[in-house]
Design a protein that fits this description.
127 residues, alpha+beta, Nuclear Transport Factor 2, Chain: A, 3 helices
Length: 127
């Protein structure tokens, strides 16, 4: 059973990771992403760790990353974090998506191993 303290830890970890993505804090990004990390983007593209972090280092990748309420699945060696996010890109394009991250405990250092973002399409009935 997960505790509020565990949820608070992973909430802060995810916020730290997303801040580092926007700010292009490469030291933090290298620390928080496992060597075998993979991202599946809202467009369905796959980035491995090297390609993703190289793209972020080369030029701004995200202009803003807004984090919604988080849900958690936590075990001693793995945690999954899921929330609605609003991603804004340097072009001005914004995407609202479901974002899920899987973290693993690597000898006391929690690292993201998988991320997936699924764009939320507006309903035809919504304005």
């Amino acid at each position: 059973m997960q505790t509020r303290a565990q949820e608070a830890f992973f909430r802060e970890l995810e916020q730290r990771r997303t801040r580092a993505l926007v700010e292009r804090d490469m030291q933090t990004l290298n620390e928080l992403h496992a060597p075998e990390y993979e991202l599946i983007t809202p467009a369905g593209k796959m980035f491995d760790r090297k390609r993703y972090l190289d793209a972020i280092e080369r030029e701004p990748f995200y202009a803003q990353w807004e984090v919604g309420d988080m849900a958690f699945r936590i075990s001693p060696a793995m945690a999954i974090v899921r929330y609605k996010a609003r991603l804004t890109f340097p072009s001005g394009r914004a995407v609202t998506c479901w974002h899920t991250d899987a973290y693993e405990d690597r000898a006391g250092l929690w690292q993201a191993v998988w991320s997936q973002a699924t764009e939320i399409q507006p309903s035809p009935l919504q304005p």
